[in-house]
Structures are given as structure tokens and as C-alpha cells.
Amino acid sequence: MFLLSFIPDAWITLAVHIIFGLGIIGIIVGTVLNHIPFVNSYGKIIRAVSIALFVSGLYFEGGIGVETEWRAKVAELEAKIKVAETQSKEANTKLHTKVVEKIKLVQVNVANNKQTINTNKQVIDAECNLNPKAIEVYNNAIKSGAK
Amino acid sequence: MKRLILISLLLTGCATSVPVRMSFPQAPESLTKPAEELQALDPNKKKLSDLLENANTNYGEYHKLKQQNDAWIEWYNTQRKIFEDVK
User: Fold this and answer.
1) Residues 6+ positions from A114 with CB-CB distance below 8 Å
2) pTM across the whole model
3) ipTM metric
4) Which residues make beta-bridge pairs with B47?
5) What is the rounded distance in angstroms from the CA atom of residue B9 to the CA atom of residue B15?
6) Dihedral class, residue A66 (left if φ above 0, else alpha if ψ from -120 to 50, else beta)
7) Which residues of A touch B (CB under 8 A)?
8) Maximum CA pair distance of chain B?
9) CA–CA dist B45, A135 (Å, integer)
10) Separation in Å, CA of B74 to nearest CA in chain A
11) Each residue of B46-65: pLDDT tens digit?
């Protein structure tokens, strides 16, 4: 069945129709030959072979319907996946652009704040000096605690 | 050798073909950057402006991470919706 997936649908359908058609024609020819003297022994052989062809042809006719249905489903799913992969890439590009822009805004805000601190340094530092203990506590808060 | 080829060919009859496969979506590059460490305050810098500057830098890092985190949530929801639409 795995190897069948490499053969085009049209070829398989054609082969099955030929087997089935040969079976029907063979049964008719075999039945006719059965009634003609001297060749009726060939008629029996043709008929037996044709019945086998007819039965297998009939079986494959049923099978081909299922196979075609599955192939259609696979093609449909492949098309959906292709669309989904394109959508996924587009969504990623949009998101990337959005994140980069937002991070730039954050950086601008940080830079502006830094500028304000530098401008007002003298006023800010005029009334306060940090105790070493305060710095220690502050730095401890920065540590996550997780290892 | 002929037997090996014959057996290999026969065994392919038992193989199940899986022609439909969806690749796992890649995350945008901006989301895969690791987080920066928070900066500790230099014990020799004892002025309030130094503390503010340090806090400003660290808050900036937090805001960057918040953007990344929000983006990860959006990425997950979008990709999940796209994946579910395929079914």
C-alpha cells in the first residue's frame, strides 16, 4: 500500500477498470466459446481466468473508491497545513515587529528617565545620602533567590 | 543480496505512509532572547541619584521582559488557534 502512494491516481483507476472490463469481456467470450464445438475446452479456461479477473476487478473497484477518498482527504489536509504554516509565519513576523517596537519604547523611556535624573542630580542628592545597610537591602531585593 | 532486496520490498507493504505532517512553529527571534540579570547597586555609590539610576535601569529590564512575556502569551494563543483551524 505504501508503494501505491507513489503511483498517480489515474493510472491505478485505469488499471482497475481494465482488469474489471477484461473480466466481464472474458466471461462473455468464455460463455460463447463454451457453446461452440472444438473450441469449448478453451472457453472453460478463458471463463475461469475471467471470473478470477472479474472478482479481483470488483474487489479493487471497491478499494479504489476508498483509496481515492483517502487521497482527497490527505490533499485537503496538506492544503490546510500549507495555509496554516503561512499564517503562522505571518503572525510571527507581526509579533516580532510589535515586540521590537515596544522594547524600543521601553528603552527610550529608560533613557529619558536617566536624562531627567542626571539633569536633577544636584536637587535629588541635596537632602539624602544612602546608608550602607540600605544599599545591602536593596541589592538583596535584586537577587531572585532562585538557584 | 537479491533476497535482501526482495525482503525489503515486501516489508514496504507493511509500512504505513504518513504523508501529512505539520512542522512545529518557530518562535520569533525577539522572544527567544534570554533575560538580562538585574544590576546591583555599587556599594560605593551612596547618592540617591545613583539608586534612582539603578532602579530605572532595572525597571527598564522588567518592562522589556513584560513585553516578551505578553508576546509569548499572544504567540501561544495565535499559534494554537491556527493549529486548531487545521483540524
Assistant:
1) B53, B56, B57
2) 0.67
3) 0.73
4) A129
5) 10
6) alpha
7) 1-3, 5, 74, 77-78, 80-81, 84-85, 87-88, 91-93, 95-96, 98-100, 102-103, 106-107, 109-110, 113-114, 117-118, 120-121, 124-125, 128-130, 132, 135-136, 138-139, 142
8) 86
9) 9
10) 8
11) 899 999 999 999 999 999 99
